[in-house]
Design brief:
12 helices, three-stranded antiparallel beta sheet, alpha/beta, 318 residues, 41% helix, seven-stranded mixed beta sheet, single chain
Length: 318
């Protein structure tokens, strides 16, 4: 009787019922459950532990992940209650998101099979291609702890790494020092108003920085101001999503962007041909990234001089 009471208590939590229905439809890991129900990972882990302790779900390890699935079958006394939970109206849209997640998982599996050919190292290929670039003056907007900054500094002439967080900049400086990189200037500043010369940079990089600022248009305009004619801007950002927890835990001010909105902002900042490349979505992640590139126009060519009009050397009539 005590066991039955505890089970009813556990199933009295709406989030646990949602999780139970989802793992009854497919084997899911913690990150996938988090993306589907939209609550913090710590809460999801607590709910999964409770359901496992009551032997309602099972836990299996595979490929470095722990997957959960429904343990109760149609012969169990609790099956009618589980059936009610499975057949309840999908008020939160969980099942629709699950369908999308399973499709992304299948797509990622197909892609990963293509990348399993022995000897293919895409990170090394990226470094090799970067080494073919000419030495450039680069600005890294929102550098954080410098993960991207140090990679840029391996081939750039000079990198200016900017962030408003002094603690993050300290970590970035330490990493650059450990690697012996001396071509980096670290700057604590507001991305919307930088104490840097206009038209002096070859490349401006904004890697998932815009969703941390309140005015993406002003930041893009400031980046465009720094570029030389022919200089380029590269923007890596997130597609729109519904993961509200990133606001409080990660300080995001925007839940992603529509690519066309940032393309329009780049054009308004004076950049030409902002082009879009969308990355495939990871089946285990609720986030999808996209890449935009734009170019500052070259200075207009001066018009050719007008030909001199022929003049007569004949003397004027008196």
């Amino acid at each position: 009787m005590l066991e039955l009471t505890e089970t009813f208590k556990a199933l009295g939590d709406p989030t646990r019922l949602r999780i139970l229905r989802l793992v009854g439809e497919a084997r899911l890991n913690v990150s996938e459950v988090v993306s589907l129900v939209g609550v913090a990972q710590s809460s999801v882990s607590h709910h999964l532990t409770k359901l496992k302790a009551l032997e309602l779900i099972r836990e299996e390890r595979q490929g470095g992940f722990t997957y959960y699935s429904l343990m109760v079958d149609e012969k169990a006394p609790l099956w009618p209650l589980i059936r009610l939970a499975k057949d309840a109206p999908d008020e939160h849209g969980d099942l629709a998101r699950l369908t999308e997640l399973l499709q992304r998982r299948e797509d990622a599996l197909t892609l990963n099979e293509k990348l399993l050919e022995p000897g293919q190292s895409w990170r090394l290929w990226a470094s090799a291609l970067a080494s073919l670039l000419p030495p450039l003056d680069v600005v890294d907007f929102g550098c954080g702890t410098g993960v991207l900054t140090v990679e840029l500094a391996r081939w750039a002439r000079h990198v200016t790494a900017i962030d408003h967080n002094p603690a993050a900049l300290d970590k970035a400086r330490a990493e650059a020092g450990r690697l012996g990189l001396r071509n980096i200037t670290f700057l604590e500043a507001d991305l919307k108003a930088l104490p840097l010369e206009s038209g002096a940079q070859d490349l401006v990089v904004l890697s998932q920085s815009l969703h941390h600022v309140n005015s993406s248009e002003r930041v893009l305009a400031e980046g465009a101001r720094l570029l030389r004619p022919g200089g380029r801007m590269v923007v890596l950002e997130l597609m729109p999503h519904d993961e509200q927890w990133v606001r409080s835990r990660l300080g995001h001010q925007h839940l992603g962007f529509e690519p066309v909105a940032l393309q329009n902002a780049m054009r308004a900042a004076g950049l030409e041909t902002p082009t879009l490349v969308a990355a495939p979505r990871d089946a285990a992640s609720p986030f999808k990234a996209f890449l935009l590139t734009g170019t500052r126009p070259l200075a207009p060519a001066l018009p050719p001089p007008s030909p001199l009009r022929p003049t007569s050397l004949a003397p004027r009539a008196p």
